[in-house]
Known about the structure:
The protein has 73 residues and is mainly α. The protein has a domain at 35-73. The protein is built from two helices and no strands. The longest helix has 36 residues, at 37-72.
Amino acid sequence: MAKKNEAEIPENTNGSALNNFFQGTKEELEKVVWPSRKQLVSESAAVLLMVTLSASLIYLVDGLFGWAAKQVF
């Protein structure tokens, strides 16, 4: 016989399913390790820098292929 998953919520017939949902959500949010402000700013800056560099690289490669296509056709 298969074991029941611990994450399964038993069915309630008394209408407290919504209450159980919010209680479970609160318990899960208490387990979250939130970043410090310094870490948040640092990692956000790193993400923005990488997105900018990636977009710039794609723009340059697109321009190169566009130029090459004009030369061929």
